[in-house]
Every structure is written in C-alpha cells, then in structure tokens.
Amino acid sequence: MASSQALPTVRLVSVNTAPDRAKVVIGQVIENVKDRYNIIHAGNTETIEGVEPLLRSVQPAPGILFCASMWTPEQQEQIQKIARDTIPGIKTYAIPTGLQVKVGPQGIVDHLMERIDIIMKD
C-alpha cells in the first residue's frame, strides 16, 4: 500500500439467493479495490426476512448492503428500506434486476467496479 495510513474497514453484507456466487463476485470486487478500500464480506442472507437479523448479527455494524439482481425492483426497495431502518446511514446498492442473467458473474463484477467509488462515497 502506498500510504502509511491504514484503510478503514467496511463490512459489507449481501442479499442473494445464490450465496456462493455472491461470495465469488464480491470477493473479486474486494480484491480489485484493496488498494483503495478495506472491505470485508461479512455475510449473506438468501431471504428478505433474513435481512434484519443478518444486519443485527454483524458487529461492528455493516456499512454497505448489496442487493443482488434476482430481486424485483419492489423487493430491492423493501430490502434497502429494512437496511436503512435497521442501521441508519448504511449505504445500499441494488444491482439492476436481471443483470446477472444478461451479463453473467464477470459482468456483475465489471458493473460494480464502475460504481464502487460512487457507492463508497454516497
């Protein structure tokens, strides 16, 4: 790392019905940005009902929630609302519905890489 300053750790959780794929995709993004951000994938839930318990179980609290593309826009909004109600100030990002089917896992990584700086700053 070029700087002697340690990067702050940000815990990220995902809401994805394919947890192994989530781990691979997010792992690739984390690897690609490790020079700029210290992100830890702290957990995944496969259900909307699991969002609040997952958020409450991660300590320190997660700073980011990624919502996978298999959810409808309405479900993504519900997931993000649960996240914001549970952890005020959490950053959320919903991958556009259907994107995984269109572009595959590498396309999701590319999509997130194009947006990670915006997601981290918002």
TrEMBL record:
Domain of life: Eukaryota
The name this protein goes by in its record: Uncharacterized protein
UniProt organism field: Pseudomicrostroma glucosiphilum
